[in-house]
Request: fold
Amino acid sequence: MKLKLDRTGPTELIATRLFTSSVDLVYRAHTEADLVAQWMTGPEDWEMTECVWDAQVGGSFRVTWAHESEGAFTQTGEFIALEKNKRIEHVERFPGISDCDNHIVTEFIPQDGGTLLRLVMSMDDEEALTKMIESGMAVGMEDSYARIDDKVAPALAA
Amino acid sequence: MGARSQQLDDQLKALADPTRRAILLQLAGGEATVGELCAPHAMSQPAISKHLKVLERAGLIVRRVDGQTRPCALAEGGLDTIDQFMEPLRQAMERRYTNLDALLAKMERERDDENSRGTKAKRKAAKKSPAKKATQTKAPRPNASTKKKKGSP
Reply:
């Protein structure tokens, strides 16, 4: 199932995504550094060069992606609460791009032998919504503007 | 950047203000007059009117004339532009989760292999995994792709 992303308020987004694997595996993939490094990729042609992932209460994480000519960007954050195979609460930000904290609660919900992943992402800073979008775009920046102009704009004009 | 991008800019700027967001939330409950919109804020009516103009220009609210008052309401589909703007973010997240699908499949195979060593080794499935290998957590990975791509913003 493809990811569903809903804006549930001026500063809140909820993402849901179904996985066929059981919650214990999905949870491990979110908490073990060597596993996280395998799927949390950056934009196309950007390589992950650093993945420090200390998934415990009070632990922090730091992931850097680099491009041969575009430089590098980093995401940092801290883990607030973890409930094994159930729930992770953390904050994250993109230093230099957006220092606004994105507060994220990730829930691992068993469903039909698989896992429904549900992320509630909320921001409380004044410009947080805008910054959140920009931050998210940083992750998907490979062709985001081109996509807006090429796909979204015609869709809006229709 | 065309007119639509300009509208998007206007909308993002309009939303990047707590008072205007509060106004939108209030209007989500139904039409309201300027006086009603002023009530929850420690602000003058002209100040609120200024915010309303920003929201109106961004296409987020509409106003109609009703005698002496000009009640405000949420513009139908006014937030569609912003919703569309989320699409790159959605796709970026989906791309990661597609990687995660592949990783999970690999983890399941490894678990199966451990549980029934040798009997259920499905080697062909191993080829399917597009997950990039990153065995070290702190070391740079070799450039897997040399494909030319235009610059990112």
Remarks:
- The two ends of chain B are 13 Å apart (CA to CA).
- Helices of chain B lie at 3-15, 18-28, 34-38, 45-57, 80-85, 87-115, 123-128.
